[in-house]
User: What shape does this take?
Amino acid sequence: MKLKKKERQEKLKEMIEETPFITDEELAKTFDVSIQTIRLDRLELSIPELRERIKHVANNNWNETLKALPIDEVIGEVVNLELDNLAISILDIKEEHVFSRNMIARGHHLFAQANSLAVAVINDELALTANAEIYFTRPVKAGERVIAKASVVGHDKKRTVVEVKSYVNSEVVFEGKFHMYRTTERKS
Amino acid sequence: MKLKKKERQEKLKEMIEETPFITDEELAKTFDVSIQTIRLDRLELSIPELRERIKHVANNNWNETLKALPIDEVIGEVVNLELDNLAISILDIKEEHVFSRNMIARGHHLFAQANSLAVAVINDELALTANAEIYFTRPVKAGERVIAKASVVGHDKKRTVVEVKSYVNSEVVFEGKFHMYRTTERKS
DNA sequence: CCACTATTATGACTAGGTCCTAATAGTAAT
DNA sequence: ATTACTATTAGGACCTAGTCATAATAGTGG
Assistant: This one.
């Protein structure tokens, strides 16, 4: 049996909070009701339409990035992004990324840069790493700039395969093949 | 006199970068040209339409919470350590470890816990990860406690192989085989 | 069966575009 | 001045993801 109105509306609310980038049409399908019902629900719950929701999220981001633009440390700065195709990010290795004894970058920072890039390049609301084979081909020292290049190389079943190569001055320092899980079918 | 095409396009580009939430209509007014001219300009410069720009900004927010991740400090607390044999660490997954949409832990945190444990268990001054095969077998949610167990399983040439399994309540959530490089020969 | 709520359908209209075709303006070279 | 070319403007058809209003139909409890 279909959900009662109240239940549906609760789930609807949760769903939109989780994944605000969802259209009424998709919602209608998942709840197996008409679009109009979804719209009445949104009206009653005073949930704005998709485009307003997106704007809201974007606005938050905009305000934040204006404030928190110190791009320095983190997991790299994305300098190029073509969804479902390729992405490039830069990470400057600093004191805090390395073992103090030998100034060599700790592996998980290189991994984090590559992994987050693999997530970002996926043109989907939900992308998770399922598994990966990774190679640390050369130690990276503090002061070096790592450029990670991610490219989508294919799809097997529900998985998207992303290859990431990270370079310091055209020398490969990290390689990884990431098998990414994505919720919905890939958009052509 | 009105700006020449080239000048206008440069300014247009700047303007859209600065304030991506601007419609063609507003742009047309500020440059005192027709909407169609603006659209031709965007076409030539391959600048997407407003709604796509907004989505992109929003998407960044979603995909790349990158911008303030405190990966550096918390990689788990070591609770047991027998050099060259096994090690155990605990990591409590908190808000800052997860994607905000779905509360699923970002992969690199699980990796960081496992990788740093693999480094720690090696009884040597210098241990680096050479390569690894890793599997994220179950999503981990905020609030869950991840217990990682690393065990040294063997040596091939100059490498030490460490297996790490991470659990939430006796359920495996992450598995990895880490091939570690070490400077000196292993002490028997 | 009636009353009431819930759901679905339909049509008109909107913003902010795309894509295509066609007409007009402006300028530079012969 | 005439030709050639680029730049600009205009128009129409179409798109998505909605809004708002009206009306018809389904389903359920008393």
User: Anything to note?
Assistant: Chain A touches chain B through 49 residues (CB under 8 Å). Residues 88 and 149 of chain A are 5 Å apart (CA to CA). The radius of gyration of chain A is 21 Å.
